[in-house]
Write a structure and sequence with these properties.
Keywords: Membrane, Transmembrane, Transmembrane helix
Protein name: Early nodulin-93-like
Pfam families: ENOD93
Distance between the termini: 33 Å
Structural class: mainly alpha
InterPro entries: Enod93
Order of helices and strands: HHHH
Largest sheet: none
Low-confidence stretches: none
Helix content: over 70%
């Protein structure tokens, strides 16, 4: 009995590690895209707009770009973790809970109730 529990825990730990790695990669990709997408207009506006040239110093520019990159990282990683958790919880659910269609009214639930 102890071996079964140990194997189950090892399997869950491996799944958690894989999910966190996928979330980290998704966040890093989103952060890279967000960095480029925010750096171009920030740097261009500092060169072209008189107000930005006068009021946004290099520290402010770096703060704008890094804030956008950080937000993109955490949002993308969180979305990936939630989607993987939803998928894995549905896969491990009993069969009577997997059937999400409602038979009483003659029409199924909308698609957003299904995984």
């Amino acid at each position: 009995m102890a071996n079964v529990n140990r194997a189950s825990l090892d399997q869950k730990l491996a799944l958690a590690k894989r999910c966190s790695r996928e979330a980290t990669l998704a966040g890093a990709k989103a952060a890279a895209v967000a960095t480029v997408a925010s750096a171009i207009p920030t740097l261009a506006s500092v060169r072209m707009l008189p107000w930005a040239k006068a009021n946004i110093n290099p520290t402010g520019q770096a703060l704008i770009i890094s804030t956008v990159a950080g937000m993109a990282y955490f949002i993308a990683a969180d979305k990936k973790i939630l989607s993987l958790a939803r998928r894995h919880s549905f896969e491990e659910a009993p069969d009577h809970l997997k059937n999400t269609s409602y038979q009483g009214a003659g029409r199924p639930h909308p698609a957003f109730f299904r995984p």
